[in-house]
Amino acid sequence: MSRIPFYLKYGIPVMGSFFVAKKVDLRSLVPFKPRTAHADTDLFLDEAVLPEFSIELEELGEYQRNKYQFSLKTRDQHLKEMMSGEEYDIVVIGAGASGAGVALDAASRGLRVAVIDKNDFGSATSSKSTKLAHGGIRYLEQMFKRQGNVKQSYALLKEALAERNYFLDSNPFQNTEVKIVIPDKSFLSTVFYNFPGTLVYHLIYLINSMNHESQSSIHGPKVVSPWGIRKLFPKIEMIKKYWGTMMHEGQFVDTRQALNCLLTSTIDKYDPGFRGSNIANYVSFKDFVKDKNGKITGVRVCDDLNQTCFEMKTRCVINCTGVFADQIRIKDNPDAKMRMCASRGTHVVLKNDCLPKDTGIILNDTSDGRLIFILPYQDHMLIGTTDDMQEVAEYPRAAEADVEFIKNEVQRIFGDEFDFDSHLKSKFAGLRPLCLETPIPQEEYEEKVKTLKSKDLCRSHIIDVSDSGLISLLGGKWTSYRVMGEETVSKAITTHHLNNIINEESKVSKLKLLGCYSKLELRDNMALGPQEVATKYKNQLLFLQDIPVDISERLIENYGPGPSLRIIEKGGQTPAFGIKQDKNKEFKGANVRIHPDFPILESELYHHMDNEMAVRPDDIINRRLGLSFVDQKVRSQ
């Protein structure tokens, strides 16, 4: 049988009418009429009705259905299962990037997993990053200068460079590629130092990506002329005569990435052999349960919201608590040597009237030699990061000295007329977990850690196994969280003989996170581009639900196409809180803006509480929406 032409199979408009394949429901198509633009957009009505929306869920297999339309358990349901007394294969302490990576990998192999965190998911270091999925250009520079452990720097670099593709593959609607320019006033320095360096950086990425199947790729570097610099950054006076090297990295929303990863891990039968995990925020770890041989057989935990304490049986406990990992290790063994220290990274967020939406800047000639990123982020400028040693603290704050340093460097480039203070919207700091290659006895730790410099410490992750069987995932970086999870689960399987696995190998690298699949892609195994899918759903939201483009774009970015439709459909049936509906206007329910400056609907708040386990206002403002990271005044409003 000859192949059906693409335009016949998928209903592409040809010569003013639709040719439709058999599987497309003719009733779903609007009769042809001249294309008329919607008042709020340049999208057209006949583009809104596509085969995607004529596919019934019954046409999909069980696993395909679970990828598109899934049900998420409530916090109470998760806790009920945790309290059931059944034994888990793995209990994970800590629900940040590391814990999320472990949970998703273990669930993909069919292991029974529980994850707890004493605060909200991803509320510590994992939500206070530079929002870049990057290899680390400074590691390459350190290799060339023979600074530190060259082999370790190269291993970390090649791993992280290849993992950038996974970020773009796993969450293609929210994670994007961002251009970054390294400005330099010297043409010779640009073409003989910066550009060759970024080219080597890209070649390492290409070589190490060859064995990884991926739908995404990161573009290579290029030289930008002074004319190109002026075109990109017309308002930044000091670099208008500079040359530049343009490189590319991945950019992501860290709070949503951690949350979506954890929620995906809870969906039973998300993929063949996939076993849904149990997760719970605001559940604190109290102690280990051990047998007569001193081996861990369970944990004592407490639901801090209901003041209910209980035990969970488990074959393995994995410590994913970042800078707090030593506290858990000492709970297991009071004589354990210290393995962790922390460096503070400070960021500021400014109103963006200087950067393009997709292009940032790296300053590599700062007064003290540190790199500073100036990045576009959610219609603002995210600037950071400093890297200073600090004692481990529960709630680190942005140091005024760090903010002043960033201010001085920004004004040096932007010009004295740039009013930093009036542009400042937010500032925050996070503690990066760094590993000590040589453990330090507790009694010597306080003195010795004062002599350490962050640039000299291990940036890669370490998997530590104690005599009692506690596995601790120490250090690492956001970009490598999937690899860290895979290696840690593999270690748990061999150490604790977890022979009930269904899938021997990790399947996470081939999975998208929840909400990122379309029905057409699932039914026909089509490799659709995220922009193509997003356009279809934006049209659907606009024409059938009258949702403005700015809101529909953000919905699809945050939740994916399918969940966005369901949020709007449910919101249309839910009265808005405290808002009296005008009888003379169409009933929109909870699909109303909650703030004039942000494209956010009240129906999203119900979704956060019903499906994403948000229990406190900060859970929504800080992490489900991420508003306080771009504008701290919104929190009080």
Automatic annotation (TrEMBL):
GO biological processes: glycerol-3-phosphate metabolic process
Pfam families in the record: DAO, DAO_C
Domain of life: Eukaryota
UniProt keyword terms in alphabetical order: FAD, Flavoprotein, Oxidoreductase
FAD dependent oxidoreductase domain: residues covered: 89-439
Any one cellular-component term (Gene Ontology): mitochondrion
Sequence similarity: Belongs to the FAD-dependent glycerol-3-phosphate dehydrogenase family.
The protein's name in its UniProt record: glycerol-3-phosphate dehydrogenase
Protein's organism: Euplotes crassus
